[in-house]
Amino acid sequence: MxxxxxxxxxDKEEIIDILNLADQLKYENKNGIEHKILKxxxxxxxxxxxxxxxxxxxxTGMYQLGGQALxxxxxxxxxxxxxxxxxxxxVLSRYLDGIMIRTFAQxxxxxxxxxxxxxxxxxxxxxxxxxxxxxxxxxxxEYKGTFDGLKLCFIGDGNNMxxxxxxxxxxxxxxxxxxxxxxxxxxxxxxxxxxxxxDKFTLTTSPAEAAKDADxxxxxxxxxxxxxxxxxxRKKVFAGYQVNDEIMSVTKKDAMVQHCLPAHREEEITAxxxxxxxxxxxxxxxxxLHAQKAVMVRLMADK
Length: 303
Ligand code: CP
Ligand code: NVA
Fold this sequence. Notes:
- 44% of the residues lie in helices and 14% in strands.
- By secondary structure, it is of the alpha/beta class.
- The chain folds into two domains: 7-129 and 288-300, Aspartate/ornithine carbamoyltransferase (Rossmann fold, 3-Layer(aba) Sandwich); 131-284, Rossmann fold (3-Layer(aba) Sandwich).
- The protein starts with 11 loop residues before the first helix and ends with a helix.
- The site of norvaline has 9 residues, from helix 6.
- The site of phosphoric acid mono(formamide)ester (CP) has 8 residues, from helix 2.
């Protein structure tokens, strides 16, 4: 693995290897065992969108591994004034040992990797959110002990989270069922990929159908970053796509709930369901730290 641009690029073994290392790093972190594997290394973190979890977990993770992280806001970088990604990539490759980027177009992330000469990590684009799904899979395995035979349902917008969950779940052997309104389906490239997995993937407009016998219920905001102007319209379109008691009544009895956060209570999830599953949701948020440390070790440690 040279970069983490999207989960489509990884095979099952690479994903499981990251998850195993993440489990080990988490255990060691909880037991005071330090690794300064990235001593002397610097990660640049380019943010063209807001972030709480991604920024803090990458910065802390880098510190725990003995390196340092630089927060590079779009407002301050020349990239925000139009300097081409091709040039930014070649310049930053001369200073840094890796770049994490959160931006709009997936192409920008792919271009950084093409023109730069250091590992690039996708910290969210409109297309996908691979770091989040690695943490999600880690959390699911922690709670359920396995991926075999598990079904995840995603209820809501066919957005970056839906795209990455479809790829991640199918690659590790889970089934996934997505319920979204017409016109808000996941990306065509992802739907094409999912075809190879037969009935392990289903797409429906019915949340209850997707949630039936699910082991994991997942949802995300109805309007993602960059879609703020559509928020009111989307509230109407997604009104029936809420994770609530009715949905939880058709899942498996011991179903867990996951949310990448930030959450909008009483929109995509009721406060009641959210609070009933808060431990699972905040373990998931914590696991961003451990999963991303594993990614950085695999990409940035001296070989
Ligand atoms: N889930 C997630 O990526 O959170 P942030 O937007 O706060 O980084
Ligand atoms: N779909 C959301 C995920 C935030 C972590 C967004 O892109 O805003």
